[in-house]
Design goal:
There is one protein chain. The protein is of the alpha+beta class. The chain has three domains: about 220 residues, no CATH class; about 300 residues, no CATH class; about 200 residues, no CATH class. It contains 26 helices and 24 strands. Strands 15, 16, 17, 18, 19, 20, 21 and 22 form an eight-stranded mixed beta sheet that branches. Strand 4 and strand 5 form a beta hairpin. Helix 10 crosses helix 12. The relative contact order is 0.11. About 0% of the residues have low confidence.
Length: about 800
């Protein structure tokens, strides 16, 4: 019977090639979109799962709470956690919790100038790490002993790509690298490059014992923050039992008078990439909301493709009624007919899946580019994707074919063979309802795409509170020899006629920055403590970046005390310390990292971090000469290529030991929005495909509707109806359905996109014209789709139409 069902199904597909093509192509495109979305979502959900101990690895979150203004008798002080913390918490955890097997720490990423036999590169992403790192994380060591590679001081483990830059194909273990012209590091291991699906990111690991040699004092300071701490527990350990003992742990190891200001929490590695709300992450983080959105879009696209199948199958019920009537008259049972039509639906689904796999293979490079993910062809064979593709034709055949099979198999043979059968009103209502659903989803996706792109445009055009354009930034990684002559180098660079101003700083907007414990005299006269962000700058930073003052004055060389006895903060910091009016904090006492003096100025809030967040409190102080990392130059744009060439020559002459590495501030700052831009591109691509599938189905329905009304059109033309009136007649029904879809989609897309925009501190307003324009585009698209058929029908010879059977 199966062979017979397949033969009949194949003949039916061949008999109506146009309908079959529309069904198969629509389903294939929908399944292709779902495959692409599944690959993206699967990659996002795979982060850190390469670790053998994925379920047993946790990290420490730190909260430095200020409770001076909080009534502790009413409720505990709110804790805002961050991953960045202190060094002594690691050995303390190992001592206090015997359940913990291993603990490791990483520092923040550093930049070092590494050199070997004249081969010199400024390497970013170099971190210090404890020797237990390889006991916790499953990073493959290619050469060297992972147990001892990070034990001895001045040891370094390189990733494969970094090792190749300096040593080619030779074994790097046992070789040495000169760091920043002064420190010799011994290569004790080479590891595989980190997999792309990891929340941690680095290019080399230096032994933590090296850092202990450089900064021994900070390893006993609970208030010094520069470490990320991870630990490993046995599989059967109940983490909740450990968490219950955190208060007693903090009470034992942290100073009694600071107990209310500090606490910790444990976060599983499973939550690090997608589910963490902690600040100061050590690497990339993902977005569950984006995963949900894309998953829903994928379901919608497949739903629209299935709706096309149901619509076209039920629309053809009149055409296949006689076939069913004859089969029933010669003894066919309803169940047998149902199996036949389900077999036909499954065959269509199978062909669509095969085409979809081919399309997915062809489009994978494009997907890699816009998603920014190294998705491989092998990903299609993963245990998440391949079984689904095998089962999918049967599932789709059952879901999409069940209703048409039931409708077609339920026809009464007597009525059909006597010609008394008519298409039921219920079937027409169903088809109209499904068209409305299709275009509601399509309008929603078009409007959503407009809102996404408007938000991205808003991010790029929003005033940041400083001049971002024409700013060239030289990154020299804090090279000590450069810092020793920083003022001389600045003066030489400033002598270029295209350079209008020069400044040095530890960080620039969009960069990594530290936080600094700061005490400022409050309105009641006592010293209030907070930990705002810190910028260490020179005298020229504020005027070079054209940052406006809200109160007081900027740093000036005319006041020698500004180097150590003056402090500038931003408006957000003034409010944090209790001063709504920034002018009232001027002259107040401060204590900050072994400096004391008075607040001399408050700058207007400027966005030194991405616009995902509100401007946070910031302290700006004059840097010590050895803390500078970057030089900022405001340049004229008359001939940028020539200017950069001249600056490079000047740099190579002045600083021959360090490469000339530059970037433009606006470009580097906007790199923070790459993930948002990719989201927008993917969203737009899937929205376009959704419209395509919906229009494909509409084209099929319009074709069938036109064929059913050939005689009516002939009569109307014979009685003098114009072609325009016939086109209007044939198109109006579909346009009405699209207009209903617009009314349904508008409030839904408004609410949905408001939820998405909530993830941005600076949001674009959803304008009324966005869903309206989406509706207009949907109507125009529907009209173009239907009108092609309508005009062809309207121009048909009425005599030929009246002779049609």
């Amino acid at each position: 019977m199966l062979k017979n069902h397949l033969k009949i199904a194949w003949r039916s597909l061949q008999r109506k090639k146009a309908y079959s093509a529309i069904n198969i192509i629509g389903l294939a495109v929908g399944i292709t979109c779902c495959i692409m979305i599944a690959l993206y979502v699967s990659d996002e959900l795979s982060y850190d799962k390469y670790n053998v101990h994925y379920n047993e690895i946790y990290r420490v979150l730190h909260a430095y709470r200020n409770v001076k203004d909080h009534d502790i008798t009413k409720a505990p002080a709110p804790a805002e956690y961050q991953v960045w913390g202190n060094a002594p918490v690691a050995p303390a955890l190992q001592e206090y919790f015997p359940e913990i097997k291993k603990v490791t720490r990483f520092t923040s990423p550093n930049t070092l100038l590494l050199e070997h036999n004249g081969v010199r590169f400024q390497e970013k992403g170099i971190v210090m790490a404890d020797s237990t790192t390889f006991d916790i994380f499953s990073w493959k060591m290619l050469s060297g002993n992972p147990k001892t590679a990070l034990v001895a001081p001045y040891s370094i483990v390189l990733t494969k790509s970094v090792a190749r830059k300096y040593f080619g194909d030779r074994d790097a273990v046992g070789q040495s690298l000169l760091a920043d012209h002064k420190e010799t590091l011994l290569v004790t291991g080479v590891m595989e490059d980190l997999p792309p699906n990891t929340h941690l990111s680095f290019n080399a690991l230096i032994s933590m014992s090296t850092f202990m040699k450089w900064r021994p004092e900070i390893f006993n300071q609970w208030g010094y923050i520069d470490f990320y701490t991870y630990f490993l527990i046995p599989p059967q350990t109940n983490i909740h039992n450990l968490e219950a003992r955190i208060p007693s742990f903090v009470n034992k190891y942290f100073a009694k008078n600071d107990l209310d200001n500090y606490t910790i929490a444990f976060e599983p590695l499973q939550s690090a990439y997608l589910h963490s709300s902690a600040k100061r992450q050590p690497g990339a983080t993902g977005s569950m909301s984006n995963i949900y959105i894309f998953s829903i879009v994928g379901i919608f696209i497949l739903l629209i493709a299935c709706i096309n199948f149901v619509n076209l199958s039920t629309a053809r019920s009149m055409e296949r009624a006689r076939e069913v009537g004859v089969r029933k008259a010669v003894g066919a049972h309803q169940n047998g007919l149902i199996y036949q039509f389900l077999t036909e639906a499954t065959l269509i689904s199978l062909m669509a899946v095969i085409i979809a796999i081919i399309l997915a293979l062809l489009l994978l490079p494009f997907m890699r580019e816009i998603a920014g993910k190294p998705i491989t062809y092998a990903a299609l064979l993963s245990w998440r994707i391949l079984p689904t593709l095998i089962v999918l034709p049967f599932v789709l055949g059952l879901l999409a074919g069940s209703y048409p099979a039931w409708v077609l198999s339920s026809f009464r043979p007597v009525e059909v063979l006597k010609g008394q059968f008519r298409s039921s009103g219920k079937g027409i209502v169903l088809r109209k309802t499904l068209v409305i659903v299709q275009f509601s989803l399509s309008v929603g996706l078009i409007a959503g795409t407009m809102i996404v792109y408007s938000q991205l445009k808003h991010l790029r055009q929003h005033s940041l509170g400083y001049r971002q354009d024409q700013m060239l930034v030289i990154d020299y990684g804090g090279d000590y020899s450069v810092n020793m002559s920083i003022e001389t180098i600045k003066a030489i660079l400033a002598s270029n006629s295209a350079v209008t101003s020069v400044s040095a700083s530890r960080a620039v907007p969009g960069d990594f920055f530290p936080n600094g414990t700061t005490f400022i005299e409050s309105t009641t006269g006592d010293m209030k403590m907070e930990t705002p962000a810190l910028y260490e700058v020179d005298f020229d930073f504020i005027p070079t970046y054209e940052i406006k003052m809200a109160a007081g004055r900027a740093y000036s060389r005319a006041f020698p005390a500004d180097t150590v006895q003056s402090l500038i903060i931003n408006e957000a910091a003034a409010k944090q310390f209790g001063y709504a009016d920034p002018a009232k904090i001027i002259g107040k006492r401060f204590e900050h990292w072994e400096r004391t003096g008075t607040v001399i100025g408050v700058v207007k809030d400027f966005n030194y971090i991405s616009l995902h967040k509100q401007v946070e409190p910031l302290v700006i102080r004059i840097a010590s000469f050895d803390t500078f990392n970057k030089i900022s130059l405001r340049v004229k744009t008359n001939n940028m290529t020539k200017t950069i060439h001249e600056l490079e020559q000047t740099w190579n002459t002045t600083v021959p030991g360090h490469p000339f590495l530059y970037s433009f501030l606006d470009e580097s700052f906007n790199e923070q929005y790459q993930q948002d831009a990719r989201f927008g591109e993917l969203f737009a691509a899937f929205a376009i495909l959704t419209i395509f599938i919906a229009c494909l189905g509409l084209f099929g329905l319009a074709t069938y509707a036109t064929e059913q009304r050939v005689k009516e059109i002939g009569v109307r033309k014979a009685l003098g109806a114009s072609s325009l009136s016939i086109v209007t007649l044939l198109s109006s029904d579909f346009v009405k359905l699209v207009m209903i879809a617009i009314l349904i989609a508008t409030p839904l897309v408004w609410w949905t996109m408001q939820q998405w925009l909530a993830g941005y501190a600076y949001q674009v307003a959803i304008q009324w014209w966005m869903p309206a324009l989406a509706g207009v585009l949907a109507i125009v698209t529907a009209l173009l789709t239907v009108s092609v058929l309508s005009f062809r029908a309207a121009l048909m010879n009425p005599i030929k139409a009246l002779r049609t059977e």
